[in-house]
């Protein structure tokens, strides 16, 4: 599949995955791969302690937090004064408590505004952890029931329309080839697709171990044989997890390797490998 | 330089709290500590407040866990039980015990705001985790409660949540919401602070009225809630409670572990135990450089095997260096912090057998330097 096609079949791509699978690195790598292919790309992080992203002329990186999104929202509704009052009174917490999920809705609303303003050709969101992913995308529908009218009700409708339209938004899950993340991702994927009606892209399987050559173990001395047996067992466990993932989700997989580098170097390597894997998709 | 070993801690503590970021195997460690204690004849309950059903996975329980502890079959002279926090049920129980009359409890539980609060709010989850911990701590069936905190940065919020609730109830805006009395909000809101009116224009007046009636219903129970909150806080800071920071050797896991160490230090909670989980194995007694040299001077399968071992040793050396630096930083704040390193299994941990193996590694004489 052409990179342009992969990245432009939707305008917003939300990356989700459980802790430790390397979700932020994958989101940054996808954004870099998209930017390298010449598409104007916006990477949106939802937390302030985000990954180092390599510079690219087509790539912009922003952080959206609920507090910032709330004051943006209020200003856009002509309530800038209120937003300052709220900040001063420390009552933002009460507003958020009054309407659970409001913080998620505000963040999604900010992303929707980027999409509407055509801030970039490709918007990639370094989304919430897998456990929270469902709450995150379910927030608009839930709030709509609690607060059907007014600015919040309208915002909920608009965000929900975006989330459920595959031409506008898709979800990309990241996992590793181990049983616990595979089981958890499969559950989340099922819920997102069947209960919430969202569309998913192929799953990225991160940190895959490199292939183990077939050696004759009898010819090896103890430490070498132990090392060989360790990597062979690890490879078998990885294969089992990958086939379980396949059985549970029937989703296409983009497998990328584990790297010993970190930060911007890691994102560069992952972007190159992901681009190759995407081009191999039919 | 350490106080006692991790194993001895499992024999004497009444509460153990494990904290760490996602993916470090914190849940497996919590369960393994439970196995160690159960083998020493103690009656242990492990609770997870993680919404992903990881603990059930780790110990091979396929049924969904709930608030009510379930016993795990292990060969031990003691007992091991596991449970998963049900926020709604815990909150309902708390309301029933705190309400002056059953009618007041029902009124509260039927409030629309209470229902959404008890279902979906993460702050509520933190608070109920502390509450549930306290219930199990006072439950005569158990000698030891092990709490597996959520894998988030804010995992330690639950330590402060009882106090935060008490502060919230004292907030002036909250007092105004409580004060107008029956049906008074609509009239009052026009007269009182513009902030309240503005909140209403964002979230809708019905939602705000729901909050107001919730707060009024809650108001009479405040004393009981506050007392319990203080009791929970005392338990968590008492000498019966031990905190364990679990980390893996990857740079992002260590960064998060540093954050937990700072949080504990800020909360004035003593940290005595660190577990370095998922350490790559150190096979043989050579270095990665040695193995790369051997690989260059060999051929065929032997050369390939030297390359494989060199790769594993590179991982092991990086991991050990990362953990050494982390424990040195930790000991600046907590000088007696005791380190236990656990080697990563080549396969996943998702059965009680693998938890038992992990328990053996944890209980082994310390590999700390």
Automatic annotation (TrEMBL), chain A:
<dbReference type="InterPro" id="IPR016300">
    <property type="entry name" value="ATPase_ArsA/GET3"/>
</dbReference>
<dbReference type="GO" id="GO:0016887">
    <property type="term" value="F:ATP hydrolysis activity"/>
</dbReference>
<dbReference type="InterPro" id="IPR002586">
    <property type="entry name" value="CobQ/CobB/MinD/ParA_Nub-bd_dom"/>
</dbReference>
<dbReference type="GO" id="GO:0005524">
    <property type="term" value="F:ATP binding"/>
</dbReference>
<dbReference type="Pfam" id="PF01656">
    <property type="entry name" value="CbiA"/>
</dbReference>
<feature type="domain" description="CobQ/CobB/MinD/ParA nucleotide binding">
    <location>
        <begin position="13"/>
        <end position="211"/>
    </location>
</feature>
<dbReference type="InterPro" id="IPR027417">
    <property type="entry name" value="P-loop_NTPase"/>
</dbReference>
<protein>
    <submittedName>
        <fullName>Unannotated protein</fullName>
    </submittedName>
</protein>
From TrEMBL, chain B:
<dbReference type="Pfam" id="PF02374">
    <property type="entry name" value="ArsA_ATPase"/>
</dbReference>
<dbReference type="InterPro" id="IPR016300">
    <property type="entry name" value="ATPase_ArsA/GET3"/>
</dbReference>
<dbReference type="GO" id="GO:0005524">
    <property type="term" value="F:ATP binding"/>
</dbReference>
<protein>
    <submittedName>
        <fullName>Unannotated protein</fullName>
    </submittedName>
</protein>
<dbReference type="InterPro" id="IPR025723">
    <property type="entry name" value="ArsA/GET3_ATPase-like"/>
</dbReference>
<dbReference type="GO" id="GO:0016887">
    <property type="term" value="F:ATP hydrolysis activity"/>
</dbReference>
<dbReference type="InterPro" id="IPR027417">
    <property type="entry name" value="P-loop_NTPase"/>
</dbReference>
<feature type="domain" description="ArsA/GET3 Anion-transporting ATPase-like">
    <location>
        <begin position="14"/>
        <end position="281"/>
    </location>
</feature>
């Amino acid at each position: 599949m052409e990179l342009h096609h992969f990245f432009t079949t939707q305008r917003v791509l939300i990356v989700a995955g459980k802790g430790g699978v390397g979700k932020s690195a994958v989101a940054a790598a996808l954004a870099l791969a998209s930017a390298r292919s010449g598409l104007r790309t916006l990477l949106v992080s939802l937390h302030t302690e985000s990954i180092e992203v390599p510079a690219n002329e087509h790539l912009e990186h922003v952080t959206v937090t609920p507090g910032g999104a709330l004051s943006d929202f209020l200003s856009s509704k002509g309530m800038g004064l209120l937003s300052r009052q709220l900040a001063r009174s420390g009552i933002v917490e009460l507003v958020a408590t009054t309407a659970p999920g409001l913080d998620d809705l505000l963040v999604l609303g900010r992303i929707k505004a980027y999409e509407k303003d055509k801030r970039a050709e490709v918007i990639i969101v370094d989304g919430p952890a897998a456990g929270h992913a469902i709450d995150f995308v379910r927030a608009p529908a839930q709030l709509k029931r609690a607060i059907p009218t007014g600015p919040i009700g309208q915002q909920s409708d608009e965000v929900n329309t975006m989330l459920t339209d595959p031409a506008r938004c898709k979800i990309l899950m990241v996992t590793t080839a181990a049983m616990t993340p595979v089981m958890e991702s499969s559950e989340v994927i099922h819920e997102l697709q069947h209960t919430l009606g969202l569309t998913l892209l192929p799953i990225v399987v991160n940190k895959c171990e490199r292939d183990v050559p077939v050696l004759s173990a009898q010819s090896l001395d103890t430490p070498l044989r132990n090392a060989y047996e360790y990597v062979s067992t690890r490879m078998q466990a990885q294969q089992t997890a990958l086939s379980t993932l396949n059985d549970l989700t029937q989703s296409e997989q983009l497998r990328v390797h584990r790297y010993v580098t970190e930060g911007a170097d890691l994102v560069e390597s992952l972007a190159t490998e992901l681009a190759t894997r995407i081009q191999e998709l039919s | 330089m350490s106080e006692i070993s991790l194993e001895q801690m499992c024999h004497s503590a009444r509460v153990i709290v494990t904290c760490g970021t996602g993916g470090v195997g914190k849940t497996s460690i919590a369960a393994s500590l439970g196995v160690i204690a159960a083998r020493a004849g103690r009656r242990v309950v492990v609770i997870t407040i993680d919404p992903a059903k990881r603990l059930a996975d780790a110990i091979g329980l396929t049924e969904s866990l709930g608030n009510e502890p379930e016993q795990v079959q292990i060969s031990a002279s003691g007992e091991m039980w596991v449970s998963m926090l049900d926020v709604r049920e815990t909150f309902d129980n708390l309301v029933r015990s705190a309400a002056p009359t059953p009618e007041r409890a029902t009124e509260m539980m039927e409030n629309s705001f209470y229902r959404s609060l008890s279902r979906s709010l993460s702050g509520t989850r933190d608070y109920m985790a502390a509450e549930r911990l306290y219930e199990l701590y006072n439950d005569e069936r158990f000698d030891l409660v092990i709490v597996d905190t959520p894998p988030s940065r804010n995992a330690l919020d639950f330590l402060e949540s009882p106090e935060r609730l008490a502060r919230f109830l004292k907030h002036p805006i909250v007092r105004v919401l409580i004060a107008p009395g029956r049906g008074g909000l609509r009239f009052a809101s026009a007269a009182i602070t513009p902030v309240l009116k503005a909140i209403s224009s964002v979230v809708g007046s019905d939602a705000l009225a729901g909050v107001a009636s919730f707060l009024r219903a809650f108001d009479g129970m405040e004393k009981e809630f506050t007392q319990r909150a203080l009791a929970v806080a005392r338990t968590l800071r008492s000498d019966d409670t031990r905190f364990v920071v679990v980390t893996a050797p990857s740079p992002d896991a260590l960064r998060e572990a540093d954050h937990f160490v700072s949080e504990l230090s800020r909360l004035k909670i003593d940290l005595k135990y660190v577990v370095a989980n998922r350490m790559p194995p150190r096979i043989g007694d050579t270095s990665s450089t040695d193995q790369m040299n051997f690989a260059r001077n060999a051929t065929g399968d032997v050369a390939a095997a030297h390359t494989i071992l060199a790769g594993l040793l590179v991982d092991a050396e990086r991991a050990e260096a990362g953990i050494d630096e982390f424990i040195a930083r930790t000991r600046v704040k907590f000088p007696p912090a005791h380190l236990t390193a656990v080697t990563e299994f080549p396969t996943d941990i998702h059965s009680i057998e693998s938890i038992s193996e992990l328990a053996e590694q944890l209980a082994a004489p310390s590999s700390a330097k």
